[in-house]
């Protein structure tokens, strides 16, 4: 079996990623001491990298699979196969400006700066995404047509429109306005950090979550494809398990049919006779958001409710990557 190289992110989603891996593989070691992590599977070689780097490294085949945010895949324009939304690291990409500014949307800001012949300066780690979003704005097109905003980094300048400049940020982006730039393009979970820095959101660009992605050539390798399918099954099991509850309940024989009929949430339950005559055990998995709704009926029709949070729910029959061969 060839080794599958797996890149995982350092930084803001590192903690939730490790929690996911620990639930999926049970045994995870090396965390906090090295950039190389060991899973319970010796055929998977794991390395921690910056999330910005992972899409390109997976695209180029340095790694077979990786975890990073959709935002960084878009920023890198990476040609990778997204296999699974891991539903962690949920953030919004936004444009924010100082609360003292009179603008409440990006179009008004562009319009004002253009009318007054002022250069609009924006700071961001997302140079490609920021440029594309601003260029697609109707007010920008009105004044600058198809000219690319000027992207400025310490080592290069790209684009011809010097009236809208996008500066590469190396972090602490929210601290830069109003002295250094007029606005920022950044990510936020709750908006608290922006508010603390006296910034307001004037445009919401997109929402991003962490995903499992794969190199396209790796998916065409039969042995690697099978290992990647195993990895996908384990990770999907954790994602699905977090949405479910495993419940066990005892019910009298005379209430069994009524219980199953009145509680459609109890999908395909396992029903077993108990050692005590006239009693049955009902064992099933339900959505977490259904639990509160069914408790009143369970209380009236059944006894001995036990509720567990499953570590994983593995949809083994649904994981098939043969289409990539």
Entry keywords:
D-Maltodextrin-Binding Protein, domain 2, globular, 325 residues, alpha/beta, Alpha-Beta Plaits, 7-stranded mixed beta sheet
Written overview of the protein:
There is one protein chain. By secondary structure, the protein is α/β, with parallel strands linked by helices. The protein folds into three domains: 119 residues, Periplasmic binding protein-like II (D-Maltodextrin-Binding Protein, domain 2, 3-Layer(aba) Sandwich); 116 residues, Periplasmic binding protein-like II (D-Maltodextrin-Binding Protein, domain 2, 3-Layer(aba) Sandwich); 65 residues, Alpha-Beta Plaits. It contains eleven helices and 17 strands. The strands form three sheets. Strands 9-8-10-7-11-6-12 form a seven-stranded mixed beta sheet. It has a six-stranded mixed beta sheet with strand order 2-3-1-4-13-5. It has a four-stranded antiparallel beta sheet with strand order 15-16-14-17. The protein is globular. The mean pLDDT is 92.
């Amino acid at each position: 079996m060839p080794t599958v190289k797996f890149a995982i992110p350092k930084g803001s989603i590192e903690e939730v990623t490790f929690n996911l891996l620990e639930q999926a593989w049970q045994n995870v070691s090396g965390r906090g001491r090295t950039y190389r992590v060991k899973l319970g599977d010796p055929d998977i070689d794991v390395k921690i990298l910056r999330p910005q780097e992972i899409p390109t490294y997976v695209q180029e085949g340095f790694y077979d699979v990786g975890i990073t945010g959709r935002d960084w895949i878009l920023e890198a324009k990476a040609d990778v196969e997204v296999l699974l939304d891991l539903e962690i690291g949920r953030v919004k990409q936004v444009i924010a400006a100082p609360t003292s500014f009179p603008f409440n949307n990006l179009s008004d800001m562009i319009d004002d700066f253009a009318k007054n012949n002022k250069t609009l300066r924006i700071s961001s780690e997302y140079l490609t995404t920021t440029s594309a979003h601003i260029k697609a704005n109707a007010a920008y097109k009105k004044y600058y047509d198809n000219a690319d905003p000027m992207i400025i980094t310490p080592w290069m300048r790209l684009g011809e429109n010097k009236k809208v400049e996008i500066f590469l940020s190396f972090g602490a982006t929210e601290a830069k306005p109003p002295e250094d730039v007029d606005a920022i393009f950044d990510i936020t979970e709750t908006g608290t950090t922006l508010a603390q820095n006296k910034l307001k959101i004037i445009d919401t660009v997109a929402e991003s979550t962490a995903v499992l992605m794969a190199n396209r050539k790796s998916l065409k390798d039969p042995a690697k494809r099978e290992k990647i399918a195993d990895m996908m099954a384990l990770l999907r099991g954790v994602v699905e398990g977090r949405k479910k509850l495993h419940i066990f309940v005892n019910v009298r024989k005379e209430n069994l049919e009524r219980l199953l009929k009145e509680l459609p949430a109890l999908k395909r339950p396992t029903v077993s006779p108990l050692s005590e005559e006239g009693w049955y055990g009902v064992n099933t998995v339900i959505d977490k958001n259904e639990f509160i709704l069914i408790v009143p009926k369970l209380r009236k029709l059944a006894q001995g409710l036990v509720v567990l949070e499953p570590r994983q729910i593995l949809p083994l029959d649904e994981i098939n990557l043969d289409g990539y061969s």
